[in-house]
Amino acid sequence: DFCERPQVILSCSHVFHRGCLHSYERFSGKRHCPLCRCPSYDATIHHGGFVVWRTKCASRIQKAWRGYQSRKELYDQFRNPKVRSEAPVLHRRICGRALHAVGDKMERACEEREDALDRFLEELD
What's the predicted TM-score (pTM) here? Predict the structure, then answer.
């Protein structure tokens, strides 16, 4: 709903939702740009912002899906021992990254628990 609202382009080239700009004008009691404080402006309603937003979201979703599919395909290939033996460097790199990520998570968890234990012991003293 928020992204579908009409937008307003001011003469100073700043863009706001029409409702947000009206709320700002009611709140401030003045008619000036909320960002640059331009004292007078001409407002032009613009409906294209939603189309740009929708296209951007769709491309992000498609990019994430394509990445997921290619990673899944690569991992499925590495389950085959023959493929693993043909590309040992790549297999080591993938396993190394996975182990590094797990090690980092484990280290952070230990540090968080250690801090909690230290706080508990301080409260007892």
Answer: 0.38
